[in-house]
Write a structure and sequence with these properties.
Number of strands of chain B: 5
Structural class of chain B: alpha+beta
Order of helices and strands of chain A: EEHEHEHEHHEHEHHEHEEEHHHH
Number of helices of chain B: 3
Largest sheet of chain B: 3 strands, antiparallel
Number of helices of chain A: 13
Structural class of chain A: alpha/beta
Largest sheet of chain A: 7 strands, mixed
Shape of chain A: globular
Distance between the termini of chain A: 60 Å
Shape of chain B: globular
Strand order of the largest sheet of chain A: 5-4-3-2-9-10-11
Strand content of chain A: 5-15%
Strand content of chain B: 15-25%
Distance between the termini of chain B: 25 Å
Order of helices and strands of chain B: EEEEHHHE
Oligomer: heterodimer
Largest interface: A-B, 28 and 36 residues
Strand order of the largest sheet of chain B: 2-3-4
Radius of gyration of chain B: 14 Å
Number of strands of chain A: 11
Radius of gyration of chain A: 21 Å
């Protein structure tokens, strides 16, 4: 019997990557706003300067030659760059798709039309942190709410996919119901994402006024879990109160039943990013991740991205982070949630403990309960 | 697709060669991406609009061991699937006759 030839088509996600498939690129260190919980500014490790158009275009040619599939352009505020259309042309020319992260204020018909015509835009994410200027503006700046909504309406007019992100903090935690109504009913968006202000960048300077305390965090979790049911899953989260609310429920149920460890539990498995992507700072430093901005692996147009991807000791160390058991840490000693815990974000672990290879205290369920929190 | 057809790969499609000689085909215009195995990669590289499928089959037989008798049908089916995804087509020729 002869074996089949088996020229197969398989899911693209199932194979090891010779080069990164996606990159998160901070194309500018400039921003028209100074949000009180911005992760980007006030990082002493970062050189806040912009590269020239040609420097980015040369880099995009390298990405094209490596078969990179997608870039996410952030900042700063990417729409502040007057050469944004040229940069996007360079991305399109190199057979990539793109997304943009924005505060929405600088989006006009001209650039929205240009983006739509490329046919390559996966989404433009606009930050909306309040249902009105009274809750949105105090942390982001006067006029920023109206600007964000105007930007969203402009994008929708050009039939672009809008992906709103709501960052939850002390000043909007009681506005979540209204925010959901605004985004899902009034604006008719298919969904929106949530996270919460984290102890990074500018937020570190304003932590007491911005970060959720235990009671507010519990309120946010309960509200978002209720709203996501009401809106049939149209509210999503990779991190923050909604993600924690879901995860902590599962962890508590598993602990109470004495269930076997979760497949990714008991080790520092939280971050899968270094297996499929890298990030680049506005000054051209290639870094592990936007929230690990101090980790310089090389420079664009000076160091080969392919070499960094394959051989960087720091990158390989982050990839191996998942092998480190939580039982190694004094911080986790005696915790009954260990078999179900992933150690959470390495970026927040670094800013809170000074160590990347450490569980993040920010999303620690035991700590939350010790401070009087309750699983909702 | 027939064995005498000369399909040509869509020039916008990216072939991302990954570890173990597998690859990802990615169409940036549609965001469609699929993985193909080493045999699939060899077929893909043969689809240049000059060779017909019979010729591609011959090349596969020359370069891979233990190619089964069903290879022509399997390759036609594989090429059909790629065509369904918009990863390849036929070169249009001017016919002034």
């Amino acid at each position: 019997m002869t074996r089949p030839l088996a020229a197969k088509i398989a899911p693209a996600s199932s194979m090891g990557m010779r080069t990164p498939r996606t990159l998160d690129i901070e194309v500018t260190a400039r921003c028209n706003l100074r949000c009180r919980y911005c992760y980007f500014f006030h990082n002493p490790a970062v050189d806040y300067r912009d590269l020239l158009t040609n420097e980015w275009l040369t880099f995009f040619d390298e990405l094209g030659s490596l078969g990179v599939m997608k870039v996410t352009l952030a900042g700063g505020e990417p729409f502040i760059r007057s050469d944004l259309a040229s940069l996007l042309e360079g991305i399109v020319r190199n057979r990539m798709r793109f997304s943009l992260l924005s505060n929405g204020m600088l989006i006009n018909d001209e650039i929205a039309d240009f983006i739509a015509r490329t046919g390559r835009c996966d989404s433009v994410q606009v930050s909306v942190d309040g249902s009105c200027a009274e809750t949105h503006d105090p942390c982001r700046g006067k006029g920023s709410f109206n600007g964000a909504i105007r930007g969203i309406r402009t994008l929708l007019r050009h039939r672009l996919k809008v992906a709103v992100r709501c960052t939850i903090h002390r000043n909007n935690v009681h506005d979540l119901e209204n925010i959901a109504y605004l985004l899902l009913e009034e604006l008719g968006l298919p969904g929106f994402g949530t996270n919460s202000a984290g102890y990074l960048g500018t937020c570190r300077l304003n932590a007491d006024e911005v970060l959720l305390n235990t009671r507010e965090r519990q309120t946010a979790m309960a509200t978002l879990l209720r709203l996501t049911e009401k809106y049939h899953g149209r509210i999503s989260a990779q991190a923050g109160p909604l993600a924690e609310g879901r995860m902590w429920r599962r962890m508590e149920e598993a602990r109470a039943q004495g269930a076997p460890a979760f497949p990714n539990g008991g080790r520092l498995t939280a971050c899968g990013c270094p297996r499929n992507k890298l990030a680049v700072r506005a000054d051209g430093a290639i870094i592990l991740c936007n929230v690990l901005a101090h980790t310089e692996l090389g420079r664009i147009n000076q160091n080969s991205l392919s070499d960094i991807w394959k051989h960087s000791p720091a990158l390989n160390r982050l990839r191996d982070r998942h092998t480190i058991p939580l039982t190694d840490f004094e911080f986790c000693a005696g915790c009954s949630y260990i078999p179900y815990c992933t150690g959470n974000c390495p970026g927040l672990a670094y800013t809170l403990t000074g160590k990347v290879d450490h569980p993040s205290p920010d999303a620690c369920l035991r700590l939350f309960l010790e401070k009087g929190g309750r699983i909702v | 697709m027939n064995p005498t057809d000369r399909p040509i790969t869509n020039p916008i499609v990216v072939l991302r060669e990954e570890f173990d000689d597998w690859a990802v085909l990615f169409n940036p215009d549609t965001a469609d991406a699929v993985g193909i195995n080493p045999v699939g990669v060899a077929i893909w590289k043969g689809l240049d609009g000059k060779r017909n499928i019979d010729e591609v089959v011959s090349e596969i037989k020359d370069n891979f061991e233990g190619v089964p008798d069903t290879a022509p049908e399997e390759i036609v089916a594989f090429v059909d699937k790629l065509a369904e995804h918009g990863f390849l087509g036929h070169e249009l020729k001017n016919d002034n006759s």
